[in-house]
Amino acid sequence: MIEEIVLNYLEKKLDIPAFMEEPSEELDVYIVIEKTSGGNSNHIDSATLAIQSYGKSLYEAAYWNDRVKKEMSCITELNEISSASLNSDYNYTETARKKYRYQAVYDLVYF
């Protein structure tokens, strides 16, 4: 599962908790990985992943978003992933819950 591959990779590289859904406990800093779409053409899989970086402040959320982008630029070092391109990234603060968050969206091709 591509989400698990990316989750394990980022958790190791960033040394912060990573999840595929909102954690049950309250944490100051973490990332959430969500697959927003996927496909298969000629036996080649593709997926779009949203990687949300949370922090105690807007600066901290932006900082972790930048770190995510730096590590994702090297994710093709994994044999399972042949390409990773940044689709977009932006401030995605949750105003209702008052949680600072940035989101980076990636298009991946994998085996």
In words, what does this structure look like?
By secondary structure, the protein is α+β, with helices and mostly antiparallel strands. It has a five-stranded mixed sheet. The protein contains two helices and five strands; from the N terminus they run H-E-E-E-H-E-E.
Strand order of the largest sheet: 1-2-3-5-4
Number of strands: 5
Number of helices: 2
| Rounded average pLDDT | 97
Give start-end ranges of low-pLDDT stretches: none
Q: Report how far apart the termini are.
A: 10 Å
Strand-helix topology:
Blueprint: H1 2-14, E1 18-19, E2 30-41, E3 44-55, H2 58-72, E4 81-91, E5 100-110
Observed structural traits:
single chain, 111 residues, alpha+beta, five-stranded mixed β-sheet, 5 strands, 43% strand
In short:
The chain has helices spanning 2-14, 58-72, and strands at 18-19, 30-41, 44-55, 81-91, 100-110. With 111 residues, it is an alpha+beta fold. The radius of gyration is 14 Å and the shape is elongated.
